[in-house]
Each structure stands twice: as structure tokens, then as C-alpha cells.
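Figure caption, in words: inputs first, then the predicted bound structure.
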Amino acid sequence: AATTAPTGTSDPTARLVVDNPAPVLRLDGVRKSFGSTQVLRGISFEVARHEVVALLGPSGSGKSTLMKCVNLLERVDDGQIWLGDTDITDPRENQDRIRARIGVVFQQFNLFPHMTVLRNVTLAAIKVHHWQRDRAEARALELLDRIGMRAKANAYPDQLSGGQQQRVAIARALMTDPELLLLDEITSALDPMLVGEVLNMVTELKAQGTTILMATHEMSFAHEAADRIVLMRGGVIAENGTPQQVMDESDDPATREFFAHFR
Ligand code: ADP
Ligand code: MG
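Bound structure (adenosine-5'-diphosphate present):
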């Protein structure tokens, strides 16, 4: 819809797409409950192309649930989620095709322990997205090369550090060249010494223009690296703004209290 001239415009070359590109991700009034627990109570925000958005909030505030709704691991009860021009909450849309457009990395248990790094990285591309093995392996080796892990292609996960495992998981998430990368607390299970190498990889992806929505408790990283902070509280969005606006300048007592815990 964004590529067509608006109705009623006399100049057919006036295209919305130039000034108003569709966001990569748009949530509109998303609601999700588990039993009587309302976890998401009307969530609306956007992630623009090339933007890094940090999703913050206390444990239990619904960050993972929100990400699972985006990745179609959970169905929303109400509201819409748009990936580009696709309403991914429309049950008629092909779920595997949507998932190929979204890369996901979780906190832990990302790699299968009984498979080599190369097999881990290529598995979904081959089994779910029906790539030829040669194509998948070539792409995987290129990605592993880029993160300095090509020499580990035939290693097993337990031969890697936790930081290396998460970097491999990120490489795997990039296999299908997704429009959006979802990172859900990817450093929370790591030894403090290994957090930096994983966050550095996120910084590199940002520099390459990757669009990222990341849930994290790494506040100084969020302040430094995120273009925007979305702060969740009580199932709604309490704040949505630049790191400076939300983390340094908010007048909201609950927001100030939340960030005071991390100083
Ligand atoms: P966060 O990632 O911000 O810590 P979550 O999205 O994991 O928060 O959890 C939000 C709330 O939803 C919590 O109260 C949690 O117990 C509940 N919850 C999450 N997943 C489920 C589920 N599958 N069934 C029941 N309750 C759930
Ligand atoms: Mg979570």
C-alpha cells in the first residue's frame, strides 16, 4: 500500500514510500492474557527500518510474551502486528514464511548440543525453509567467517564458550537475511566476562543497518546503543523515547525508580 500514490493525488509520481516508509514492525493494541492474567494490555509501538529498539521493564512485565507474539510462538488475543505490509496476526498468512523474515535469539538453549555448529546454523534453513544443503552451508560459513567462528564450524556447542554459542545463535538467526532481529535477553545467562563480546556483535549488526528489537537488562548498553527505549510496566508501555528522554529525563516517579535500581 505504501508504494502506491495516495488516492486523490493529481501527481501520480507523488509516492508515499519516499517520505513515509512502512515501519519494519508495528504493534497496534496488542492484548494477551494467560488465564486471568492480563500480560499485554494494549501494546502499540513501531520499529523503523535500521532502528535498534531496547525493550525494557521489570521481570514479568511481558517482554518475552510480546516477542513470542511477534514470532508467532503465541497468538495475540486482540490487536494487530504488522511486519512490513503483512498483518502477521492474520491466520491466513503462512507462518513459516513469516518466521523466515524474523530472526530470533533467546536467553539460552539456543543450540542443539548433539549437532555441530554448522549443522545448528543450517538446520532451520534446510528443514523449515527448504534451502538446498550447499546453499545453506555456503551462507552459514560466510556468516561464521564474518564473526571469526569459521574454524569452529565442526565443533560442538559444549566446546564453545557461552559467548561464542550466543554469537553462533545470532549467526543462525541471520541465515535467511531477516527484516527484523528479535533478541530476548541474550546475555542474561552469560558470565559477566562474556557479555561484552555478544553486545559488541549487536553493535556491529547495528552499524550494518540491521533492524533490532532487543529485551535487555544491560542498561548502559541500551543507553549507548539503542535508538529508542520502550519501557513496559503493568502490561502497557510506560515510556517510548530516546535513551536520554526515557532514562535520564523522565519525570515519571515509577520510571525514575526503575532506572535507579540499575545505578
Ligand atoms: P518478561 O519477559 O518481561 O520477564 P514474560 O513475558 O516472561 O515477562 O512474563 C509475563 C507474565 O506472563 C508473567 O507473569 C508470567 O508468569 C506470565 N506468563 C508468561 N508465559 C506464560 C504461559 N505460557 N502461561 C502462563 N503464564 C505465562
Ligand atoms: Mg523475558
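The first helix runs from residue 16 to 19.
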